[in-house]
Amino acid sequence: MKNHKIKFPKGMYQRLRDHLLQNANEQLAYLFCHQSTDAYGNVCILPGKLIAIDSCPDDDTLKRTGTSICVEPELVNEVYAQFIESEYSCLVNCHSHPFSSSKVSFSGVDDREDKLEAQYVYGELNSVRNEHCRKAEHSFASIVVSQSDFDSRLVTKDGKFETVETITSLDNGMTIEKHRSHNSASEIGKAWHRQTLAFGEEFQQSISRSSVAVLGCGGLGSIIAEGIVRLGCKKIVLIDDDNLESSNLNRWQGAKLSDVSRPKVEVLKELLLAYNPVIDVEVVSASVHSEEAISRFKNCDFYLGCFDNHKARFLINRVAVQYRAIYLDAASVIEMDSSGQIDLLGNRLGVVLPGVSACMDCSQIDYYDRESILRGYADPGLQEGMRKQGYLDSNNDMEEEGPSPSVYPLNMMVSSLLLMEFANLFGKFRPLAVNQYLNSVNLNTPNMISAELDLIEDYPGKDCPNCSSVLGAGDSISLENFYEREEKAIVLDNLDLSEAIAI
Amino acid sequence: MANPIKINGEEIVVEKNDTVDQHLQRGEQAIAQNDDGSFEVITAEEAKKRSMDGIRSLVVNQRAVRRG
To answer: Is the pLDDT of residue A66 over 60?
Structure first.
């Protein structure tokens, strides 16, 4: 079965419900949305603009009663015209059944009218689009809400209904709602009884509906993947293109000697299914930079970054903002001094809440080693030119670097930070981390508590190329263009290497 | 009545033509083609307005939207 979803930006779902349930009469609104279709055919609708339908008291283009609503063509055509003019490709009709205090479902009138309106959107409106715009082909969906429930569906080109399973909104925390008839009592099992005593049943329901991509299944990813399953997450995508090596065994959670040489994602999938056999685990043994990998995880609600390189962070930060996924990034580092003594045991948790907090590009923290990103994206000819210009250290190629030190307890510390913030997004037991934690082990006292623990408030930059222009754009902006544009952006804007690129 | 040659979302995409290329300033002016096939240089804002007026006239839905 398809797993379609709607991801609302901050505050919009509440504004929609407030409009639709403002009094005892049915109300109507439209959403202009981008959308994203993943490799499994699941559609994620990304609303960007809310059009609340209203009229003057003496205007007869809008008729509302407690059980019906009718909008005359002259009013609805204004909505269609605005939609055609906009950059959005998905139109969502939203209306209310205010008389219903609990479970809601579409009526027979809704079924008939949804099909007729979809026919117009897919037919005549698409023809206008084809003639004048380059944006993606239009699609149509609908939502009905009651006082405490919703139902939603995509209407396909051939007039079939496909259920939208979840509505996700990020306000003071993460809320994932599901139509009541789709809820099952087994969502809260005995396994999570002690946890619900702490965080509550609503927490457990929301977390069980979430979808999570674990990006990088190494020393950090293996711990974090186990952690989210134990918290109750049931839809997981694992991405990594490496095989397990003997040198991973000091820190790879759950690995056995007999697992060496097997793909990390396969080993991890087995372990997770052993913890909970009913979860849905997808594995992709490919680079996170590949189109195949991104098409499989892009619609997830969370991206958990467990990388050891800045190039991957740079890409995933951009994809997270574009597909409105919460991005939690864990990193640990051990620095040695010239005499071979430990100089730093450090951890860092990055939190990117698209549209709510700064992304890694516009954060106050200098998040990336931009030179290593540039090395990762630049072709060999450009790299050579940059070396000649002195922009790259010829003795500092990533490929030539030896293995870096890495230990299990340090990975555990940052994994715990990440898992606590993941839980907090649903449990809302303390203010959200906006934006980053920095944490390091105090090397000067026997007390291992962090020497530094900062919570930095950091909001989206008005001029940030990510937060201002691609937020929630979904498939409207191709990732192929993203790669090309970012490569140029790094060179020209961020690093001011225009001379190097001219070589 | 002149029609803009091509519109790309918010941005006017200019197709250069030898006869008017010297007048072109990308992003500030667009080239419109008249009904008789001749070209004229107009502002991007005017080009967009003419195009959108054209699109609006094509939205001719006759049905009311109902839900119940």
So the answer is: yes
pLDDT tens-digit series, residues A482-495:
553 344 444 434 44
Q: What are phi and psi of A31, to 5 degrees?
A: -115, 130
Tell me how many residue pairs between chain A and chain B have CB atoms under 8 A apart: 75
Higher-scoring residue by pLDDT: A26, A179: A26
- Centroid of chain to Cα A434: 16
- A2 or B55, greater pLDDT: A2
Query: Measured between alpha carbons, how far is A460 from A480 in angstroms, rounded to an integer?
Result: 24
Structure tokens at A356: 């709510």
Residue B65: count of CB within 10 angstroms of its CB = 25
| Contact (Cβ atoms closer than 8 angstroms) between residue A95 and residue A66 | no
DSSP string, B30-63: EEEE-TTS-EEEEEHHHHHHHHHHHHHHH----P
User: Which of B12, B59, B62 to probe the A interface (max A CBs under 10 A)?
Assistant: B59
Whether the ipTM is more than 0.85: the answer is no
Pairwise CA distance, residues A286 & A265, whole Å: 10
Which of A128-132, A164-168, B5-9 is modeled with the greatest confidence? Answer: A164-168
State residue B37 phi and psi, 5-degree precision: 95, -10
Query: In Å, what is the CA distance from A16 to each residue of A65, A94, A297?
Result: 19, 8, 28
Tens digits of per-residue pLDDT, A399-415? 445 788 999 999 999 99
User: Residue B11: what pLDDT?
Assistant: 43
Cβ proximity of A419 and A412 under 8 Å: no
Q: Is residue B51 a contact partner of residue B57, using CB atoms and an 8 Å limit?
A: no
Question: What whole-number distance in Å separates Cα of residue A57 and Cα of residue A419?
Answer: 52
Report whether pLDDT(B26) > 60.
no
Residue A219 corresponds to which tokens in the numbers above?
Answer: 């020393």
pTM value?
A: 0.82
- From residue A41, alpha-carbon distances to A2, A37, A289, A468, A472 in Å are 7, 6, 20, 28, 19
For chain B, which residues lie within 8 Å of any Cβ of chain A, measuring from their own Cβ? 7-10, 51-52, 54-56, 58-68
Q: Cα–Cα distance between B23 and B31 in angstroms, integer?
A: 10
Smallest Cβ–Cβ distance between A135 and the set B9, B55, B59 belongs to B9
Residue range A112-128: average pLDDT? Answer: 92
Count H helices and E strands in chain A, helices first: 16, 18
CB atoms within 10 A of CB B19: 10
pLDDT surpassing 70 at residue A77:
yes
Confidence (pLDDT) at A308: 85
Tell me the shortest Cα–Cα distance from A113 to chain B, in angstroms: 6
Is residue A78 a contact partner of residue A86, using CB atoms and an 8 Å limit? Answer: no
